[in-house]
Structure formats: C-alpha cells, structure tokens
Task: inverse folding
C-alpha cells in the first residue's frame, strides 16, 4: 500500500508541475488501488495530495476544482468497484467476507476497517448482534441470510479468511489493544509502546517542518519549500493526529508516516544547508539534534537499552558542536560540512541500530510485525543470544483426543 501511495504521490507532484489532467487521473486511480489493498488507511494522505494540486498549480480556481472533481469520481469508482461486485454476488457463490458481521465488504470498510479504527471496539464487546439482526437467538457470527452457521470446530478461525475477526461475545476491548498501541493522547507517539515504531526522528522532523514553513518566501504558485510543507507536512500532521486519537489499530500501521517523515527531514536539512551562513540556522540545527538525541537516549532506556551505539551518537553530537564552533573562526566551509555531517549521522545511529535489532530479534511476529521491543523480547547486541525456554508447554499425552489437542493448540498458538 505504501509503495502504491508513493506512486500516487509522484503522479500528483507531476500533475502539479505540468498541470495536465492525465497525471492527476493516474494519481487518483493509484489511490483507489491503494484503497483496495488496505481500505480507508490509504486515504490518509488524500487531503494533502489534493491541497498540493489546488495550491501548487497556476491554473484558474474553477478549472482546478473541476479537475479534482473528475479525479474524485475516478478515485471512488476504482475504490468501490470490487466491493460492490462482491456484495452483489450471492453469498452462496463466494467466500464469507472476513472481518464483517453481515458478509459485506461495504460494511467491512465502514465498520471494522472504518469507524471502529477511530472509535474503538467497545460497542462490539457486549455480544449484541449487529444492526439489522432482530432475532438475537438465531444470530451466529458466521451466519449470513443465505448460508447456515458453520458447524462446531469447522468455522473459519477468528480473523483468518472466512469469518469475523472475533465472535461478538469475545471481541477484544480497547484495554487489550492499549497494550499494543497505548491510550489516545497528545504524547502517545512519543512514549512506549508506540514510540519505538516511528518516533526516533520525530522531534527533529517536527523542527524541520517548522523550519520549512518559516523560511520559504510566499509565492504564486507556491515555491518548492511550501509545496513540501503542504504535501509531506500535511501527510505527516494528518497521520500524527489520527494515530494520536484512534482507538483501534496495530502498531505496524505507523509505516504510513515513514515516507512523509523522511521527506520532511530530508527537505529540512537541505534548506538548512542552503542557509548555513546564518547563525540562527546553525544553532537551531544543533539544538534540534541535541534534543532529538536526548529523546532517543531516554526512549532506548525505556526498553532496557544502554548499548555502545548510544555513546557513539553522543560522540557524533559533540563532534558536530565542536565543528560548528570552529567554523566561526577557522576553515569555515570545511567546518560547516563536518558539523552538518556529524549532527545528521549522530541522529541516524540509534534508528539504524534499532532497525538491525528488529531484523535480528528472535521469534518475530509475522502476523503483526513491530519494531524491536527491548532486550527481554529479542536479541541484544550487547549480549550473546540464548535459546528461548518454553517450560510446561509439551503436547499432552492424549494427542489422539481431538478436543484435548484442540485445547492445547488454542492455548499455545
């Protein structure tokens, strides 16, 4: 999905540069394809993409509104076509729509993959039948009007393939998801458990976004710096707000913010480099780097990490600050090059180390992947790996008994 959205972003950028409708339509079609991959999650950057074209081109306002309207029609057509075809197919001639309560893709995208993502799962935790089911005594979570319930032990596993993610009476509450994503708040992405997924460079990225906003000169059409603010900054801020208030998602969804965060940081560093002769720019970069490294050190400590690479990052920060001071009196250009290099590389050390730990950690969750969660959850670079112990988890002797085996497998999935 992210790759598809980046292709759509490239199309919108090209349309903004040349003003041609065909590139805008290509971007809308790619956004619709992204919707079919991960539903409403794909629409997260849509306001930023529309704003980029609307404010970034020199065409008349009316013409831009009409072009964006045509693009929206194509976008909705591509997004909804497959879902409508599935829902119009008789239930007896197709698989059950996994995750839905009424065997409907449209209901799935609006409910489980839509409103529930923002408001949470509490309203489904009571065990009441979905809206439109009047006879609760005959309701079964895997039943549709055209299909009888699955027989015992033959229904699709929860959340896999052909059935709802959880029977209504056993749907997880928000308390369960809070263990994975924390509770909604303004600082949610800066504290465990979500901070390890994305936030190592987030403080620096927000400073870069502010710098891009205040250093670009207003123009019509907008200059490249302001276009970057609208596109990448808009995408990033929309995502930060959504993931700060949403009640139900998995931590790997934060990959949606990786591209805009990288773009904002890259654009910000480039602008600061062009304005490196100005003293306030130099020290803003130094303070932003120091604050980001302090945050990285604190966050790594939350996961039990005090490894050599944290000290290496501190050395890089110190070297960058010394080079900045030298540049005021001696070998000015060479000192600035060294200072910027040391400061930027120092901020990248901890994210790089965490990426290595994530790849090398033991027992990764391939169904719900996430970043490295600390030495207690995986391989620590500072200590040799040990084989995990699983006491008291041997299969029962009565393996020939299907119900006993089933109970064991459910308890030790």
Result:
């Amino acid at each position: 999905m992210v790759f598809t959205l980046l292709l759509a972003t490239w199309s919108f950028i090209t349309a903004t540069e040349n003003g041609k409708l065909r590139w805008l339509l290509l971007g809308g079609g790619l956004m619709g394809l992204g919707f079919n991959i991960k539903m409403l999650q794909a629409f997260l950057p849509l306001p930023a993409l529309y704003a980029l074209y609307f404010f970034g081109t020199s065409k008349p306002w009316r013409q831009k509104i009409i072009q964006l309207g045509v693009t929206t029609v194509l976008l909705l057509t591509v997004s909804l076509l497959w879902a409508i075809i599935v829902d119009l197919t008789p239930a007896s001639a197709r698989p059950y729509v996994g995750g839905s309560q009424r065997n409907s893709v449209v209901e799935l995208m609006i409910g489980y993959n839509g409103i529930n993502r923002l408001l949470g799962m509490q309203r489904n935790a009571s065990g009441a039948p979905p809206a439109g089911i009047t006879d609760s005594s005959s309701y079964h979570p895997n039943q549709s009007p055209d299909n009888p319930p699955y027989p015992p032990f033959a229904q699709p596993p929860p959340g896999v393939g052909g059935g709802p993610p959880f029977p209504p009476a056993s749907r997880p509450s928000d308390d369960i998801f809070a263990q994975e994503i924390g509770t909604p708040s303004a600082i949610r992405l800066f504290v465990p458990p979500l901070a390890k997924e994305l936030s190592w460079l987030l403080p620096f990225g927000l400073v870069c976004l502010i710098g891009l906003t205040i250093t670009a000169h207003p123009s019509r059409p907008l200059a490249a710096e302001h276009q970057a603010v609208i596109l990448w900054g808009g995408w990033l801020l929309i995502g930060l707000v959504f993931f700060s208030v949403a009640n139900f998602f998995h931590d790997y969804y934060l990959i949606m913010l990786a591209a805009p965060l990288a773009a904002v940081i890259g654009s910000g560093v480039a602008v600061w480099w062009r304005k490196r002769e100005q003293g306030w720019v130099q020290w803003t970069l130094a303070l932003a780097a120091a604050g980001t490294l302090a945050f990285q050190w604190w966050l790594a400590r939350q996961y039990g990490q005090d490894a050599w690479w944290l000290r290496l990052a501190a050395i890089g920060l110190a070297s960058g600050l010394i080079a900045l001071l030298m540049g005021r009196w001696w070998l000015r250009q060479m000192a600035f090059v060294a200072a910027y290099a040391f400061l930027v590389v120092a901020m990248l050390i901890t994210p790089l180390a965490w990426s290595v730990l994530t790849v090398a950690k033991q027992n990764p969750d391939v169904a719900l992947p996430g970043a490295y969660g600390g030495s207690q959850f995986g391989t620590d670079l500072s200590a040799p790996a040990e084989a995990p112990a699983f006491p008291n988890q041997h299969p029962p002797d009565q393996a020939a008994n299907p119900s006993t085996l089933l109970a064991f497998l459910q308890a030790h999935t």
Notes: The two ends are 28 Å apart (CA to CA).
